[in-house]
Amino acid sequence: MRVAIIGGTGFVGGYLIESLLDAGHSVSVMVRPGSEDKVRRARQLRMTRGSLSSRDAIQETCDGCEAVIYNVGILREFPQQGITFEETQLLGVERTLAAAKKTGAMRFLLMSANGVRAHGTPYQDSKYHAEERVRNSGLEFTIFAPSVIFGDPRGRMEIATQLYADMVAPVLPAVGFYTGWNPTAGKVMMSPVHVEDVATAFVKALQDDALVRQKVHLGGPEALSWSQMIQRIAASAGKVKTIIPMPIGMMKLAALLLDWMPKFPVTRDQLTMLAEGNVVKPDELARIIGRELRRFDTESLSYLVA
Questions:
Q1: Average pLDDT rounded to a whole number, residues 241-268
Q2: Which of 209, 227, 250, 289 gives a 20 to 30 Å CA spacing to 138?
Q3: Is 233 within the bounds of a domain?
Q4: Is the pLDDT of residue 183 over 90?
Q5: For the chain, what is the largest distance between any 2 Cα atoms, rounded to a whole number of angstroms?
Q6: SS3 for 93?
Q7: Residue 252: is its pLDDT beyond 90?
C-alpha cells in the first residue's frame, strides 16, 4: 500500500516512516524546505517539499496514495511565525482531507490526543474539531488518541528527555506537581506509551477493518504519577532525585507572568491539561499490536544514559 504522511519529520513521524517501510508499504512524505535531512530513510521514499499552507504540496504528497496519515501537532503556539493550533491541528487537517478525497484514498489515520474536547484549551479545541472534520469526511478513518508518548527522541523533543533536562539534571530538587492542595489526593497521573507501540498501531490499522470509523485511545501498561515518572527517569540516568511537591495552581501564577517567554518551560494551558490527568487503559493497544507493551522503565529509558 502507498501511504502519505503529513508530519513525518518529527519524533513520532520518524518511527511511523520506519514501521511502514519495514511492513512493506511505500511511503510519500511532505517535508518543509530545509528539513530534508530530518527524514528517516529518505532514499526509500517519495519526498515532496512544501508546507501545511500549500494545498498543491499536500495534494502532490497524497497523489497515488491509498491511505493518508496526518501526524502534525504542536504543544505551543508561536503566532509571529504563523505557528498556531488552528493552522497546524485543524486547517492542515482540512486541506489534507480534501487532498485525500481528490486522490481517491480510502483510509485516513489521524493522530489526535487523549482528553481533547470542545471549549477546552485552544490545543484541545483545535484537536476536537479536527476529529469532527475527519468523522464527517466520508473516508474510512481511524483516530488515535495517545497519552504521553516516550522513546528515544533521536534529536527531537520527547517527554522523558525534556523532564531529564528540566528537572533531573539540575542540582536543584525536582518539582512534583499535584492538583488542589493535597499532594497525596491530587496526584497527576499519566499512561506513558512507547513510540514504537504507537507506530505499530498505525501500521496495523491500515488493514484492520475493526478499527474503521473508530477512535482508539492508546496508553502504556502502567498509570504513573508525575513524581513516579521523575523518579524512573532519574534512576535510568543513574541519579537519585529529591522531589518537592508543588500545587499546579501555584505554577499557574508563575506562568501567568512568564509564559509569554519562549524559554519558560510550560504555559498556563499546558498546566490546565496536566491537572486533568492523562490515563488510558492499555487493553486496546495491546490487542491491536499483539504484543506486550513497553514499560516506562530503566530498559525502555536507556537512551537517557547516552
A1: 74
A2: 289
A3: yes
A4: no
A5: 56
A6: helix
A7: no
Domain termination residue (choose one: 146, 175, 201): 146
Q: Dig out the grid coordinates for 133 from the structure.
A: 472534520
Residue 261: is its pLDDT beyond 70? Answer: no
- Quick: pLDDT tens for 56-86: 999 999 999 999 999 999 988 888 888 999 9
Q: Specify the 3-state DSSP secondary structure of 150.
A: strand
Mean pLDDT value of segment 236-246 = 93
Residues 21 and 136 reside in one and the same domain: yes
- Residue of 149, 123, 124 whose CA lies nearest to 229: 149
Helices (H), the chain: 11-22, 55-62, 85-86, 92-103, 122-135, 159-163, 195-205, 226-236, 248-258, 268-276, 283-289
Neighbours of 291 (CB within 10 A): 10
**What is the residue range of 127's domain?**
2-146
* Alpha carbons 142 and 213: distance in angstroms, whole number: 5
Q: HSE of 285 in the Cβ direction (CA atoms, 13 Å)?
A: 29
